[in-house]
Amino acid sequence: EAIQDSLNSLNFMLDIILSKTGLLIPPDLIPDLKIEKKTYKKNDIITREGQIEKYAYALREGCVKVTFNHNDTSFILGIWFKGDMFSSLVSFLEQSPSRTNIIALTETEVERVDYTQIQKYYRQYHMVSEVGRKVIEHQFILKANRELEMLSKTAEERYMELIEQSGHLILDQPVKEIASYLGIHPESLSRIRRRIKQQMQMK
Predict the structure, then answer these.
(1) Strand duo 73-81 + 45-47: pairing
(2) CA pair distance 189, 203, nearest whole angstrom
(3) 66 forms bridges with which residues in the sheet?
(4) Alpha carbons 191 and 63: distance in angstroms, whole number
(5) pLDDT in tens, 17-54
């Protein structure tokens, strides 16, 4: 059973990598890769500000947020959902203290691989090193696209896309949290929600 769980975790992680990068790693290339399955309760801190990020994660169930605290205000920089890969990326790459927190927004299940193992396989296999490069590229492309969307799309458009991405999980989150991610005031989001509700009632 333990062996089967390990294979399931490996296959899940490799499927996520394939979907994000287009690169397929044969499972038999990294048979001794240790992938740890872990669960978090809502509001559990996965990575804390000041902590050195030791893991790269793949999200099996639930959703998480990345926050940055400044002048007693918490800003939501990102929200990740089922099938996403995440980490406190700068901290992970530099092995330096994280400037952000990663927090479970719901009951959350992840698979994670530690930094030491990843570096070991980078040195052993060019293919794994190429996958790592592609994963990092993917993360920065997502960041760039989000920044462009903040300028080019309306708050309502971004909100509707967020609902679609989350499978409606985001609807259970406080208005203040969602508004922070969208870069708008909570009052503005409340108006958007009322307008959408009215539009649906008219159909």
Answers:
(1) unpaired
(2) 22
(3) 78, 102
(4) 25
(5) 888 888 777 777 776 778 899 999 999 999 999 999 99
